[in-house]
Structure formats: structure tokens, C-alpha cells
Write the C-alpha cells for this entry.
Amino acid sequence: MVTNGIIFVLAYLLGSIPSGLIVGKLFYGVDIREHGSGNLGGTNTFRTLGVKAGLAVTIADILKGTLAVYLPILFGAEIHLLIAGIFAVIGHMYPIFAGFKGGKAVATSGGILLGYAPLMFIIMILVFFLCLYLTKYVSLSSMLAAIVAVIYSIITQDTPLIIVVCLLAFFVIYRHRANIKRILNKTEPKIKWL
């Protein structure tokens, strides 16, 4: 039987796969860390490499969280699914394969919820795109979706979900500190495709 420690390591390594770096270097010959915000996530990939690359990276980052949630089931480990997901998010933010400088936890956190609470994931996506349509700020839309996820989790009264979603929302907001300052200073870049 696989131990909880092995599940944590596998989830972290799964989260550490630098989708943006792989897509950029493999298909475009570009290290996206040297462009735009320097971030490895989907937003910087969209900005640097375009829609196809951005979608590929975002989907890959979501799936990292979803797959991590299912690791305990796959290996028969007696651990809550959401805990494995947290380790994937930590891997995404601080990837061992990319110098511990990764993304901002949004897509991989969403992937955890896709695997554990699909309805919540759908609501978050709707909130994200509504906010994006109204404000044109990806960062603000991500943070608002995280806050809505916290409210939704409280309504469900699923204690493990509440704890993990609050933690994930903290990660998302903390990783967007610089974006918050730019939004307040009105220097945050807006998207132009919506």
C-alpha cells in the first residue's frame, strides 16, 4: 500500500510540471519566464505566446490539480482527496523543475475543485468570466472567483472543503499581491480579446 508521504510527493511533483515552460520551449522556442510578467502560468502564456498556447497551459495546469485529487483513490491511500490537491498547488507555485518559481495557483486550485466539487468549479468559471468581461482584469477575476469559492464552500458545510478552499483562496490572493497594487494604481494590464 502506498503511504501518505508518497502521495504527497507524487502530488507535489505532478504540480511541479512547468506547463508554461514546456509549451513555450518545445513549441515556440521561448522561455516565457523571460517575457511579460515572467510568470509560468496561463495568463502570461496567453500574453506571451497567444491563445492556443495559453489554453494548452491553462488546461494542463487545471488537470494537474484534478489528477492530484485522484491519487489517493488510484493508490488506495487513506487520505482526504483535498490534501493531495494542496500539495499539487504547492508544486505549481514552487516547482522543483523550474527553480521553485511557478504560477499563481489559480488554474491548479480550480483543477482540485473540478475533481472534488465540479459544480463549484463551474460556478467559479462563470464568476471568473463575468468579472473578466466587466473589468478586463484576469488577476481581479481570479481573486473574485476564489472569494466566491470560499462562500460556496461555507454554504456546503463540508468542513474539509471549507478549510482547503480558504487555504487555496489565501494562496491565490497572496500570489497576486503585486497585481493588487497595480490595480489600485491603475497600471495593471487589461486583456483585449474579450
